[in-house]
Write a structure and sequence with these properties.
The complex is a heterodimer. Chain A is mainly beta. Chain A has no helices and eleven strands. In chain A, strands 2, 4, 5, 9, 10 and 11 form a six-stranded mixed sheet that branches. A five-stranded antiparallel sheet of chain A has the order 1-3-8-7-6, with no helix packed on it. Classes of the chains: A mainly beta, B mainly beta. Chain A binds chain B through residues 31, 33, 35, 41-50, 88, 90, 94, 96-103, and chain B through 33, 35, 41-45, 48, 50, 55-56, 58, 89, 91, 98, 100-109.
Chain lengths: 110, 115
């Protein structure tokens, strides 16, 4: 079945530094979604990217979908302590379920 | 603000016991999902439910698992005879169309601990 890989597994940054997590799918995706999970919380939807090469921004967060629609990235500019959590990418499989990456844990030192 | 409500928030059970996890999804929605997350690991798909029927299930969702919508609103996940490895967070999710796309709208989750 479809596999979604995510790197890095863990990143610890100083507040104000940038952060990027990368996602790679074994198959071409119709779309890719990003979720954030705070420690002890549940996944919360951030964004969906649909078009090849698409770039979307949400304040300090920039999401990209690769030209081949197999990879994606999430970049956070000037991290804040409120950015702490695990960031997951997820791609649909079979039109009906999401296959999640392993997630990237972000820790921010103030 | 829509909400997906899960109960209980935490359940401790002995190995071999049956557990029922409950979810109240957003009303009038047809697509629901159950996912689980073993501590520190990724979110894994268990089963999807469309219009009161299972539409897809994963390899994890074996004969020990069942889902029901007993009264047309609540949505339950039953594990018949729990094993230690069933310890995990179980999330119910609704499919929601929003400005940002089609999302899985997760409940707060039930932490299941099997001892």
């Amino acid at each position: 079945g479809q596999q979604v890989m995510q790197i890095p597994q863990y990143q610890h940054v100083q507040e104000g530094e940038d952060f990027t997590t990368y996602c790679n799918s074994s198959t071409t995706l119709s779309n890719i979604q990003w979720y954030k999970q705070r420690p002890g919380g549940h996944p919360v939807f951030l964004i969906q990217l649909v078009k090849s090469g698409e770039v979307k921004k949400q304040k300090r967060l920039t999401f990209q979908f690769g030209e081949a629609k197999k990879n994606s990235s999430l970049h956070i500019t000037a991290t804040q302590t409120t950015d702490v959590g695990t960031y997951f990418c997820a791609g649909p499989e079979g039109g009906n379920k999401l296959v999640f990456g392993a997630g990237t844990i972000l820790r921010v030192k103030s | 603000e829509p909400e997906v409500t899960q109960t209980p928030s935490h359940q401790v059970t002995q190995m071999g016991q049956e557990v029922i996890l409950r979810c109240v999804p957003i009303s009038n929605h047809l697509y629901f999902y159950w996912y689980r997350q073993i501590l520190g690991q990724k979110v894994e798909f268990l089963v999807s439910f469309y219009n009161n029927e299972i539409s897809e299930k994963s390899e994890i969702f074996d004969d020990q698992f069942s889902v029901e919508r007993p009264d047309g609103s609540n949505f339950t996940l039953k594990i018949r005879s729990t094993k230690l490895e069933d310890s995990a967070m179980y999330f119910c999710a609704d499919r929601v169309e929003s400005f940002s796309g089609t999302e899985a709208f997760f409940g707060q989750g039930t932490r299941l601990t099997v001892v």
